[in-house]
Amino acid sequence: MAYKIIGNLGEPHEMNILPGWTTSKTTHDKVDLSVELVPDVELSVPFIGAAMTSVVNERLLGECARNGAMAVVPSQYPIEVAKRMVENVKKNEVRRGDLEFVEQPEWINVDGDASKVGDAIDRYNKVGHSVIPICDDERKLKGLFRYREGIPNDCLNVDLHEAIGLARSRKNEWGKIVIPFDIEKAKNGEDYVSERCQPKTIQNRMKKARKGCMPVVDRNGVMKGLTFNYMHNGYAVGGAIHTYKWEKRAEALLEAGADIIFIDASDGASDFQVRTLRKFKRLFPDSYICAGNVVATTAIKKTRSGKLIEVPVYDTLVEAGADLFKVGMGSGRMCLTTDNRGVGGDILRALYDFYKAREKLGVYRPMIADGGIGTLDPDFDKRVLVRRNLRQDTRSINAALAFADAAMMGTYFNMFEEAAGPVHNEGGILYIENWGEGSYKARSFARYDVGEGVRRADIEEGGFYLIPLVGRLKPGMEKTALGVAMTMSNVGAANLHDYREMCVLEGLY
Question: Is 381 found in the same domain as 479?
């Protein structure tokens, strides 16, 4: 938990992180953002895409997995669709140290109109590939552009032909930005790999050359692709279930390869949650399940004798079989439960309380902050969510990670091109639809173990808005991860565990 809290715990975006002492071992490039949610499921970044039908489709599920994060298949999808989504992502899984081939990578034409260093940076910002081949009109490889933070502004208007020449002459820092390539001088296995090489040979040559990426070319120097040493711990995928008639869905998701099953319920303090956890562990004793959502560490219950007791929520759900928890209710940008019904609570206060409950019980279960992590301002008249700044999302994430092991986000992932929502062009600006799972658009009547006839009053608990698209997931998430790493560096923390121990939070109000 945060080392110290100054003032009041407000909403995540209302908190400052006070700097600690940065050392040479805690600069942002050395910070470790990885988190182990359960044994053998490690994320490279502590970000999880929420199980929302406006957010997660197969494309976003795969992009999150390939880039070291995780997304959760919504429980609203038909079982066969959800199973196929997981299968299609998992069948292409690679593990850390394996080779990942990109047959048709994004490349930039050195003879084209957009052929300056700034254009290469724009291409990175669009697609997120930090290594971009530089080719001529015939796709013959001339060099590799390597993106890195802090490329000087006076380099942006330099033509790539000139940049390649400067790199060859070893002038200034150009060798760190552009790697020249000439098939007549390049060595197979050191500067490139032949398209005829076998994967094991490629892997051995890359290891010997100590390179994480190599171009694949034919004998004429025509670029055929890129090969990378994959650096993440496999493809992590989650799947959501309700607490009502969930057994076949859970079985199908696990058969397809889902790593963690997430209970999709806004209120986890219930008999339905306990029964689901216990039965899940009987049916699938070697699989993992996330309980939630929870917001209060004690819940008042009236016994059969009429006595009122306080049920310890964390202890009870751990005993029932919870492997990890989602914390948060009513705090999400798309959640109207608190606004319309007055039920819910502040997410940071909830994280603080559950952290203390976990310490008291002495049984560690990872906590996922779920809801209210993004920084979108609603324009209620236009039904549009206005993004202030992509990197401002890190402010909320940083506050949540002072207590939580990971952050689950819906609206954040919804802003990327890969998200599931339909796209609209409004006055030349591209927007994507975003709706909450409690909205009329996505309403599910199977979230509780009750019949439709006794379903709660028909009150909308989710919003519907349009969000401006900001581009592809990979570069966007990398910018957010960089912001989190820089904050951790300011605190002096080398990893997320240290960050939770060392962080000092200051409430603005």
Answer: yes
CA torsion 224-228-233-234 (nearest 10°) is 10
* Euclidean distance between CA atoms 292 and 377, whole angstroms: 26
C-alpha 43/C-alpha 98 separation (Å) is 17
Residues 138 and 61 in one domain: no
Q: Which helix (H) or strand (E) holds 88?
A: helix 79-90
Asked whether residue 209 falls in the same domain as residue 249, the answer is no
Tokens of 318: 């751990």
Q: What is the pTM of this model?
A: 0.85
Query: 500: part of which helix (H) or strand (E)?
Result: helix 496-502
Q: 25: how many CB neighbours lie within 10 A of its CB? A: 9
Q: Give the range of the structural domain holding residue 493, as residue numbers without chain letter.
A: 4-95+233-507
Per-residue model confidence as pLDDT tens digits over 426-439: 888 888 888 765 54
Report pLDDT for 380: 43
444 within 8 A of 84, measured Cβ to Cβ: no
Residues 171 and 205 in one domain: yes
Question: What is the rounded CA–CA span in Å between residue 55 and residue 417?
Answer: 10
- Identity at 178, one-letter amino acid code: V
Q: CA 435, 450, 367 angle in degrees (round to 5)?
A: 55
Dist CA 111 CA 142 (whole Å): 11
As a whole number of angstroms, the distance between CA 227 and CA 192 comes to 10
pLDDT < 50: residue spans in the chain:
332, 338, 378-382, 387-388, 439-440, 443-457, 459-462
Instruction: State the pLDDT at residue 460.
Output: 45
Q: Compute φ and ψ for 219, nearest 5 degrees.
A: -70, -15
Q: Are 55 and 413 in contact (CB under 8 A)?
A: yes
- The CA distance from 101 to 230, in Å, is 9
Q: Quickly count: other Cβ atoms within 10 Å of residue 453's Cβ.
A: 5
pLDDT digits (tens, 9 = 90+) for 464-505: 678 888 888 998 899 899 999 999 999 999 999 999 999 999
Handedness of CA 153, 154, 156, 160 (dihedral sign): negative
Question: Any bridge partners for residue 327, and if so which?
Answer: 294, 369
Q: Distances in Å between the alpha carbon of 96 and those of 25, 66, 93, 99, 163? A: 24, 11, 10, 9, 33
Of 202, 229, 256, the domain-final residue = 229
- Per the document, the length of the chain is 509
Exposed/middle/buried for 302, CB within 10 Å: 0-12, 13-18, 19+? exposed
Distances (CA, A) of 49 to 354, 410, 411, 464: 22, 6, 9, 18
Rounded to an integer, what distance in angstroms lies between the CA atom of residue 70 and that of residue 89? Answer: 11
Are 339 and 440 within one domain? Answer: yes
